[in-house]
Amino acid sequence: IKTSKFELCFPQLLNSSCRKLKRSRSEIVLISFLLCFISLTTVSLNLLVIISISHFKQFHTSTNLLILSLAVSDLLVGLLFLFQIMLTDGYWYLGDRMCVFYYALDIIITFISVGNMVLISIDRYVAICDPLHYPTKVTPKRVQVWVSLCWISSLFYDIVLLRENLKHPGKFKSCSGVCVIEGGFIEQVADLVFILIFPITVIVVLYVRVFVVVVSQAQAMHTHIAAVTHKRTGKATAKKSELKAAWTLGVVVVVFLMCLCPYYCITLSEQDTLLNNLSAFFVICLFYFNSCLNPLIYVFFYPWFRKAIKIIATLQVMKSKNYFAVLMK
């Protein structure tokens, strides 16, 4: 059975097959190429972030450990794009278990990304609003503990949210060729609160406070810049570095929120539109594309990251005696 707009996903299953949206061959090739390019770019850029922060010990700061955690989750998003490439034909053909695995990975990555953004907001809040106690309150070891708790909590949250789908894969699908999951009312409310409302509220409140302090400090520095002595120059430079980090990570957070909100509107309203609705497909890809933008923001704002990329790309990283001097130039 065929119509002018739809055809069956599995023609041999006349009574149980879903219908898929017909797309031209050129459209499928174009979408697949773009998704492959974005996936490769996302994985490559975030891999550079991971290598840079992991390899250079001078980058093992509390803030950079949070960036490292975010880069790992962004790298997983790049790999998740491979599933989106398989959906360009408009139907799911990998089976029910892989469908649940896809959604489970998607939920874990979303939870971790949101958690990382909250931790980054807390880090910047303490660094700017309570700078004297920042070195003792936010230590690398404490950050490692909080990041670990974030990843562990994401796994626990995922298991609880998808418990019925994990027990009975494909239980909620209406026909063959569709990939859907479903949760109860309590799960949907919990998802809305813990992934959207609570994190965004915390992020917005903290960053409003941060930027109020940043603006006041910037005005104070500008007013008294002529009176700064040589002895205080180091402190002023350190404060300027903290302010720049706040602005940079503020851009990361704002871009993340701009990509998260449309994505969550789609996933909360109609999850089954993922395969057949092109606008929903675009919004979901927009959220994933945020993971490609984060490393580009670091390149634009962080000179140390640009130098680290140069060292890695030119293989100077293999010369243990020279790379530190090059990095500090």
TrEMBL record:
| Chain segments annotated as coiled-coil in the UniProt record | none
- Provide this UniProt record's keywords sorted from A to Z: Cell membrane, G-protein coupled receptor, Membrane, Receptor, Transducer, Transmembrane, Transmembrane helix
Q: Give the transmembrane ranges.
A: 28-53, 65-88, 100-122, 143-162, 192-215, 245-266, 278-301
One term of GO molecular function: trace-amine receptor activity
Write out the annotated subcellular location.
Answer: Cell membrane
Q: Which residues form the G-protein coupled receptors family 1 profile domain?
A: 45-298
- Xref: InterPro entries: GPCR_Rhodpsn, GPCR_Rhodpsn_7TM, TAAR
GO annotation, cellular component aspect = plasma membrane
Question: Any keyword Membrane?
Answer: yes
Q: What Pfam family does this protein match (any one)?
A: 7tm_1
What membrane topology term does the record carry?
Multi-pass membrane protein
Tell me the protein family, please.
Answer: Belongs to the G-protein coupled receptor 1 family.
Protein name per UniProt? G-protein coupled receptors family 1 profile domain-containing protein
